[in-house]
UniProtKB/TrEMBL annotation:
This is Sigma70-ECF: RNA polymerase sigma factor, sigma-70 family. Signal peptide: none annotated. Gene3D superfamilies: 1.10.1740.10, Winged helix-like DNA-binding domain superfamily/Winged helix DNA-binding domain. Belongs to the sigma-70 factor family. ECF subfamily.
Length: 187
């Protein structure tokens, strides 16, 4: 990390870089490992990507985590492609199908990582809900109970459970949208 920090001019850049490094290095390494099928080569590519990010640090908006990840993973994937081409692991031909298959695989991987991040954030939002919202959502989605069963447990009416569930889902939806996620989680 010291090598990276020495290349930065201001303390503000160093702080920003440290935050990016700590937040994204594991995801970058995981992505590169999948693409390259080698832990050692993945480490080299992640290192090279961080060196590149130093030059473009001013283009990264930390408040937009999805946009930041997309920017970083684009640089990372390009470096992986170039590495594979240099080492002739990908046979480039005029047939676009050869090149499209890896792109589709990488897009699926990226979508999976974004989905996992969104689910983790959703869990955080659920934990932050107040009583009885958290309990109703938990019983409804985790335990797969219907309104009548939840009403019996919470000693209220099924209509009240549906209203609580609706309000809780609305809170979760707003929280997800505020963070920039689309709501594909059944609410």
């Amino acid at each position: 990390m010291l090598i990276y920090l020495m290349a930065l001019d201001t303390e503000e850049e160093r702080i920003k870089f440290v935050r990016l490094y700590e937040e994204y290095r594991n995801r970058m390494h995981y992505t590169a490992s999948i693409l390259l099928k080698s832990e050692i080569e993945a480490e080299d590519i992640v290192h090279d990507t961080f060196l590149t990010l130093i030059d473009y640090l001013d283009r990264i908006d930390e408040k937009d985590s999805v946009g930041t990840w997309n920017y970083i993973v684009t640089i990372l994937k390009n470096k992986c492609y170039n590495f594979l081409k240099r080492n002739k692991r990908i046979e480039l031909t005029e047939d676009e199908e050869v090149f499209e298959q890896p792109v589709e695989m990488y897009n699926l991987l990226e979508n999976q990582l974004i989905k996992e991040e969104a689910e983790e954030f959703l869990n955080t939002l659920i934990k932050g809900l107040k009583y009885p919202y958290r309990e109703v959502i938990y019983l409804q989605y985790h335990n797969k109970l219907n309104s009548r069963q939840i009403a019996e447990l919470l000693r209220t009416s099924p209509a009240n459970v549906r209203k609580i569930s609706s309000r809780a889902r609305e809170q979760l939806k707003k929280g997800m949208q505020k963070k920039g996620y689309t709501c594909e989680y059944g609410f």
